[in-house]
Amino acid sequence: MAHFPTRTVIGACPHDCPDTCSLVTTVVDGTAIKVSGNPDHPHTGGVLCAKVSKYAERTYHAERILTPLKRIAPKGSTGAPAFAPVSWDEALSDIAARLHAISERNAEAILPYSYAGTMGLVQGESMDRRFFHQLGASLLDRTICSTAGGEALMHTYGGKLGMRVEHFAESPLIIIWGSNSIGSNLHFWRVAQEAKRNGARLVCIDPRKTETADKCHEHLQLQPGTDGALALALMHELITNDWLDHDYIAQYTLGWEALRERALQWPVERAAQVCGLPAEQIRQLARDYGTTPHPAIRLNYGAQRARGGGNAVRAIACLPALIGAWRHRAGGLLLCSSAVYPFQRAALQRPDLLGARRPRTINMSAIGDALLHPGDTRFGPQVQAIVVYNSNPVAVAPESAKVARGFARADLFTVVLEHFMTDTADCADYILPATTQLEHWDIHGSYGHTDVLLNRPAIAPEGESRSNARIFRDLAAHMAQHDSAFAAPHFADSDEALCRSAIEGTQVDFEALLAQGFARLSLPQAPFAHGGFPTPSGRCELFNERLSALGVDPLPDYVPNYEQPGHDARYPLAMISPPARNFLNSTFVNVKSLRNSEGRPLLEMHPDDAAARHIADGDRVRVHNARGEHVCHASINGRAKKGVVIGLGIWWRKDGDNGTNVNELTHQHLTDIGRGPCFYDCVVEVEKLASMAA
């Protein structure tokens, strides 16, 4: 029997998750046979989620795209094959020629579209940015996930900063706010469980009775988009019961008196009515928070996906300063830790290549409207070409009927870098096969912990796939035939060289990363114990005058949803669309084992709402509003609040019974701060449909 050598390679999970795990890939004779958590990385602790533990299945998927493909049939046609394989040279030559021709007329008619299909700095935001900066293409406002909360933190703390995740284990009270940690932050949940074993009380705040809520001592099942009202009511109770750290407030905050007056307008009874919660439940939470030493809040991005999401995060972020929770390393708040990293982003992205040019910026959360805009003096030129990578906008962007119509334009030149035939790839003129994380170099930070991770390729690229950075490097070489600026040396940097440049001159040693796959940053244990917030004032800014220039109240307030039940009799139900547990956005939808676990597109309903519509568990239903309709199946599983339905996402549109997914129903209105999407700010009606014939 032949014996094949076995080796292991240390890498990093690339996905949009706060855990950013260290991976160990076991390779036999050049084939990855297993992906597991690195037991030597303290945060990962040898544990992976069910999704990423199936990563080899995704890399070797039978439907993976392994050669460049060119469209040979008109968009929207049926019957004949839509794509044919072509060589890399043919694909890149044609793409370069077409992009150059458009740029000669107006480079702003070209739009890059990318997000967090990989969170890596090299494959996500390096050579691609250099390419589009040199071209002078339109800039993309990458808002689709976290900008409301991120900018709210910046206007309060001075950056995306907070507690270190491991210190939650020492807190006696943990509030998990807007997060299904079991499904989307597994390694934090392990820390929370350690705290629970040590006697900590766990409280979940979420409109859905999540798997996390099941395991907490208390669940506040509030109405979607009312988190700001709840935070203000908690402040009211802290004030009226004098559960305050007056010394911390005086020394380390700015604007307390103004915030105090605002909070006193929010007695518990008022918030209870807005939030749909029992008044005593709010009082008890305030009592626990105000009287427990160094309580901790694990805030996540679910709280900011509504019109008032930025204000809500601002209000919640003020709470630890009012009680002096920051004095202890196990007190405070964590939403995002990404500002701790010393990465050399400008060296990677080279914004200086723009020179004096200042291209327009297009918000990715409004891509449907952008692609359908004919162009004018205010908007600028019509978008004539779009290059999509690390994203699947036809599935994930809001108001997807408009997004799909925009991508269906016959005159829109579309290039998609992908692994599979996603909804967006279906609309492409060229599809370029990209490598998976097992096949390329990259470097990673995290937004949930504070380690730097290196990803080394474990296997050779499958088929003809190339890394994102190499694709843009090769595309630049073809563009150089039209524009000599693309022949500059910075378009020839290798992927490994880009990894090195990301940390050059920082405290992170690349050789240490090569040796063990991760490096721990030297950071303070309790970052704001003595103030030191990186705001202009150096304080926690409860009042921020700079927000006035953005048309935003300098004080946190409750900003009601754009769409609320009762405002339109046709659509009496609020809808939120959190991720299905077995998917990560739309990334793992076609992995058979995970898809089988998830079953089919579902709409969770409260039994009373279902009964009023004669809907039983498993019935096929039509969910609709003025923007469109989505057909799925009802799930009466006890997780939905009365008056709220939950469309678990994000399935590919092609998997829906009527060729849609839940984003057919969401809108393109933006959040109060950060210009983000309002996925959890939506009203609908639901009706029973006849079952499809077997």
Offer a concise description of the structure.
The chain has 694 residues and is of the alpha/beta class. Helix content is 28%, strand content 17%.
Description:
The chain is about 30% helix and about 15% strand. The protein is α/β, with parallel strands linked by helices and about 700 residues long. About 60% of the residues are buried. α9 crosses α13. The strands form seven sheets. It has a six-stranded mixed beta sheet with strand order 5-4-17-16-15-6, with helices on one face.
Task: Summarize the SSE layout with pairings.
Layout: E1 6-12, E2 22-28, E3 31-37, H1 55-59, E4 69-71, E5 83-85, H2 88-106, E6 110-114, H3 121-125, H4 127-135, E7 139-141, H5 147-156, E8 173-177, H6 181-184, H7 186-197, E9 201-205, H8 211-215, E10 218-220, H9 227-240, H10 246-252, E11 253-254, H11 256-263, H12 268-275, H13 279-291, E12 296-299, H14 309-322, E13 332-334, H15 345-349, E14 361-363, H16 367-372, E15 385-389, H17 393-396, H18 400-407, E16 413-418, E17 430-433, E18 442-444, E19 451-455, H19 468-479, H20 495-503, H21 510-516, E20 518-520, E21 540-541, E22 573-576, H22 592-598, E23 602-604, H23 607-612, E24 620-625, E25 628-635, E26 644-647, E27 683-688
Parallel strand pairs: 6-15, 7-14, 8-9, 8-12, 9-10, 11-21, 12-13, 15-16, 16-17, 22-26, 23-25
Antiparallel strand pairs: 1-2, 2-3, 4-5, 4-17, 18-19, 19-20, 22-27, 23-26, 24-25, 24-27
